[in-house]
Amino acid sequence: MNKNEIKKFFTSQHSTPLQEIDDELFIRKDIKLYIKRDDLIDQHISGNKFFKLKYNLIEAAENNFRTLLSFGGAYSNHIYSLAYAGKKFGFKTIGIIRGEEHIPLNPTLQFAKQLGMELLYLNRSDYRKKYSDEIINRLHKKFGDFYLIPEGGSNDLAVKGCSEIPSRIGFNYNYLFCACGTGGTLAGIINGINNKSKVIGVAVLKNASFLIDEVKRLSSPVNSIWEILLNYHFGGYAKFTSELIDFIKTFNEKFNIQLEPIYTGKLLYAIYYLARNDFFKPGSKIVAYHSGGLQGLEGLRQRKLL
Q1: Which of 21, 94, 236, 297 has the CB geometry, 3.0–4.6 Å to 33, for a possible disulfide?
Q2: How far apart are CA 156 and CA 162, in angstroms?
Q3: Structural class in CATH, domain 3-43+163-302
């Protein structure tokens, strides 16, 4: 584990473009949409995962932890990025995966395993109580000492990292949108906003009203204006329809920006829907945060879902 290498990687300049979407809809409505392309930060630690892992890895290194342990589903962007970060910076990594093992491994877990991550599967009943003393003690008994990062990477240090996102945009805008799964990225962005812009999260899972309280718990806004939209989940987490897939394909063909149907596809679909229905005042400037996660496309293609 190289502490200096970790700090150098995460504190060096990782600038990404702000790309305007020149669509006839936005011209007609007299609004402007830009996408902050943080999917281009790094090939394997991209988007919000870069900011969620930043201070967690620095903290783990400064406290001389040699093992990182976290939780995730079988196609988790977080597990994927954590495995790569562990290999890059010299940590042992352990991924606690929801559900049963399936052989052959999907591309996400195969990548993680090839990079040295040890995988342990928890049945769904145990996974629901993954942070209980019973489960954590069992994991310590099996693996010894480890630095625990929550599912999705969302904790106070992740929020601290994500609070740096707004300052990277570099111009005045009226709305900043991001996809919302665990609430950590949204909470960080709320903390980092230093203007009158409104922050809007697009929930990607069904029955997600609990995220409102979670974001309140994680954030400490002073005068931030924010809300979470709950009606663009397309049936639930990791669920989608042919309508969403067609939207993603058309968007990619027109603007050469790849989206995926779990997070960013739902995010952009929501913005287009709102624009068509006059949610935005004429003259509005909107920024959509591209949080990466494109590694999951390979698994969706393998399952013939794309």
Answers
A1: 21
A2: 10
A3: alpha beta
Task: From first to last of the 306 residues of the chain, give the pLDDT tens digit.
Answer: 678 899 899 988 789 999 999 999 999 999 999 999 999 999 999 999 999 999 999 999 999 999 999 999 999 999 999 999 999 999 999 999 999 999 999 999 999 999 999 999 999 999 999 999 999 999 999 999 999 999 988 899 999 999 999 999 989 999 999 999 999 999 999 999 987 899 999 999 999 999 999 999 988 866 789 999 999 999 998 889 999 999 999 999 999 999 999 999 999 999 999 999 999 999 999 999 999 998 988 877 776 666
Query: Is the torsion defined by CA of 71, 77, 78, 84 positive or negative?
Result: positive
Q: Find where tokens 């903390």 sit.
A: 191
Sequence ranges of the chain with CATH classification 3.40.50.1100: 3-43+163-302, 48-153
Q: Where does the chain show beta strands of DSSP type E?
A: 18-20, 32-36, 67-72, 92-98, 118-122, 147-149, 175-180, 198-203, 225-229, 285-289
> Under CATH, to which class is 48-153 assigned?
alpha beta
Entry pTM: 0.94
Q: Residue 134 corresponds to which tokens in the numbers above?
A: 């019973």
Amino acid at 186: L
Distance in angstroms (rounded) separating the CA atoms of residues 21 and 255:
7
